[in-house]
Amino acid sequence: MSVLVFIDHSEGQIKKTSHEALSYGAALGKQMAVPAEGVLLGNVQEDLSSLGKYGIQKIHQLNQESLNQLDAEQYIRIISAIAESSGATVIILSHTNTGRAIAPGLSARLKAGLVTGATELPQTVNGFSVKKNVFSGKAFCTVSIKTPIKIISLNPNVFPVITGSGAAEIIQENIKLNPSAVSIKSVSKASGEIPLTEAEIVVSGGRGMKGPENWGPIEELAKLLHAATACSRPVADAGWRPHHEHVGQTGIAIAPNLYIAVGISGAIQHLAGVNRSKVIVVINKDPEAPFFKSADYGIVGDAFEVLPKLIQEVKKLKGLA
Amino acid sequence: MHIMKILVCISKTPDTTAKIAFTDNNRKFVTDGVQWILNPYDEWYALVRAIEIKEKDPSAVLHLVTVGGADYDVVIRKALALGGDEAIRINTEPGDSFYVANQIASIAKAGGYDLILTGKETIDYNGASVGGMLAALMDLPFISLAAKLELSGDTVTLVREIEGGEETVEVKLPLVVGCQKGMAEQRIPNMKGIMGARSKPLKVVEPVASESLTEILSFELPPAKKGVRLVPADNAEELIRLLHDEAKVI
Ligand SMILES: Cc1cc2nc3c(=O)[nH]c(=O)nc-3n(C[C@H](O)[C@H](O)[C@H](O)COP(=O)(O)OP(=O)(O)OC[C@H]3O[C@@H](n4cnc5c(N)ncnc54)[C@H](O)[C@@H]3O)c2cc1C
Question: How do B165-172 and A182-189 pair as beta strands?
Fold first, then answer.
């Protein structure tokens, strides 16, 4: 019996969400008094044994260059095989783009109950149940998993990265790869930009920004705060900003530590994507804007006057002015 | 010539503005007064893209499938008003994602579909699981979070979202695709579509034996916000101070 954590990586770096998943897996292992192990497909620059610092005992690696790119079917087959050979009873992934591609297939293949978007450690004393987000962030539910093997995908930014000391044992796996059904033609990664779902701070603009030419201050504030940028649906629909920045019920759901909404009214469908943010700041010239009801801090004022002042103050805070 | 067969999986969800409340010791969602809609990801992206494919190739066959009781018929008719040749409703209470995927797999295997489209997730349970499970159960490739899909013969070119970017991939039919924004633009059904939908076949079939692997025990609402703390517009300094010293987020 063990907890097996899937470790995702990109450009030779282990994803922050996987550091969270490793910490979560180790905490769960401790709670259930079973070892926590990791599985990494492909290779990274980091010394894998150092992942022991999270409380991980073993790392299973299949060191094949081709696995550095997402190949869902291959990943599912390999993780299933490693889960079976290592006797894993719980498999942890992150509820990210990679997790979404593989967790369901893994669940069907292993006939293992799956809970996606978990927000807490499971309750394991009386059965096995875990809390997840439902109704697009408007509620939670507790789901019991009834199968011998359980799969959980953890929401990003809900579980802290916890480090201690220790070294993990590396086990080189030898599993034959199948020819892939999916051939990758091109990859475009926004280098230098912080992916929206991983960002701890997000600065977002709505229709109140009036036009794409006015996004300069939003981008500048985001850059100063090491934040990602987002937008409301009409802004993406109008082509002012790229589709992947659209947050809300029909876009991406995020849960940063800080969400700064500028010129966004706070429609219920927008809130559905951002209401899990730990702190919400709203800047809107209309004191009646519904967003203020869901905000922690707010400024009633014109974005074009407030943003330059905020930028100035953040520069001061960071010792840049 | 091979006739292209497309299957679109449809789910019903509460309207995006529906009040979320629970009853029966927080075990049941309060459905009184709730308007039901087609899950937006199934409708705007999966269904509309399938309709576009059929518009380009009128010989293509487009079927819709849903898993649910008779209360799903309204939503299925709405989908048929947008397009599609016929709908199949698997007459059972939808259990968990695995149960639903198994039901759809039985229809999909028998129907010999080339392309199976689902939305990326439902906006109520947010499981994001049925498509991937269905693909695994049918031993087909699965492309998640697809934002574009082009067909050329038996080759499908897709753009999918991956960690920190996107990827263009090529896959041979048959396959399962999870659709999201970018796939197609939302459409409003017209009068002709609404009238026509009434006479389109809606087949009701009985479920196959399957089980749920998970079970919802209870729901809860997030704790209410304390209320907003307003800072005067000319005092940006105070807001930054609060975010730094009080909220400790910058
Ligand atoms: C089924 C469905 C799904 C949807 N999904 C989403 C979704 O996923 N995400 C989403 O965002 N929306 C979604 N919507 C749309 C949503 O209902 C709103 O229409 C949308 O969020 C409004 O965007 P907005 O706040 O940018 O624009 P508006 O509602 O037009 O608000 C603009 C705001 O800017 C303020 N403003 C104007 N000028 C200034 C200024 N100079 N300084 C400061 N403030 C200013 C105004 O006071 C106003 O509050 C959905 C709608 C439906 C029906």
Answer: antiparallel
What residue has token string 């912080």? A194
Hey, CA dihedral for B215, B220, B221, B225, is it positive or negative? negative
Same domain, A75 and A206: no
Q: How many domains does chain B have?
A: 1
Does a structural domain hold residue A177? no
User: Which pLDDT does position A44 carry in this prediction?
Assistant: 97
Q: What domain range is A36 assigned to?
A: 2-172
**ipTM given for this complex:** 0.96
The reply to whether A34 and A165 lie within a common domain is yes
The CATH code of the domain that includes A261 is 3.40.50.1220
* Domain identity same for A96 and A231: no
> Which B-chain residues 147-176 have CB contacts (< 8 A) with chain A?
147, 157, 161-172, 175
Helix, strand, coil % (nearest 5) of chain B? Answer: 30, 30, 40
**Global pTM exceeds 0.80:** yes
Could you tell me if A276 and A152 lie in one domain? Answer: no
Q: Taking CB atoms and an 8 Å limit, are A296 and B228 in contact across chains?
A: yes
The answer to whether residue B243 is domain-embedded is no
CB-based contacts of B91-95 (< 8 A; 24+ apart in sequence): B91/B204, B91/B205, B91/B206, B91/B207, B92/B67, B92/B68, B92/B206, B92/B207, B93/B68, B93/B69, B94/B11, B94/B67, B94/B68, B95/B210, B95/B211, B95/B212
Q: Which residues pair with B23 in a beta bridge?
A: B28
- Mean pLDDT over B97-108 rounds to 98
Whole-number Å distance, alpha carbon A261 to ligand 1 midpoint, is: 10
Residue A116 sits in the same domain as residue A200: no
* Interface touch B229/A296, C-beta < 8 Å: yes
Cite the beta strand spans of A252-295 per DSSP E. 258-262, 279-284
* Centre of ligand 1 from the C-alpha of residue A232, in Å: 6
Asked if residue A179 belongs to a domain, the reply is no
In this predicted structure, what is the pLDDT of residue A85?
A: 96
CA nearest to A244 within chain B: B181
Which residue type, as a one-letter code, is found at position A165? S
Q: What is the pLDDT of residues A55-77, one digit of tens each?
A: 999 999 999 999 999 999 999 99
pLDDT at A115: 98
Expressed in angstroms and rounded, the spacing between residue A286 Cα and the centre of ligand 1 is 13
Considering its fold, how many domains does chain A have in total?
A: 2
pLDDT digits (tens, 9 = 90+) for A216-237: 999 999 999 999 999 999 999 9
Residue B241 inside a domain? The answer is no
* Cα B193 versus chain centre, distance: 21
Residue A69 in contact with ligand 1 by CB distance below 6 A: no
**CA-based end-to-end distance of chain B:** 62
Domain-embedded: residue B226: no
* Contact between A282 and B244 using a beta-carbon 8 Å cutoff: no
pLDDT at position A243 is 87
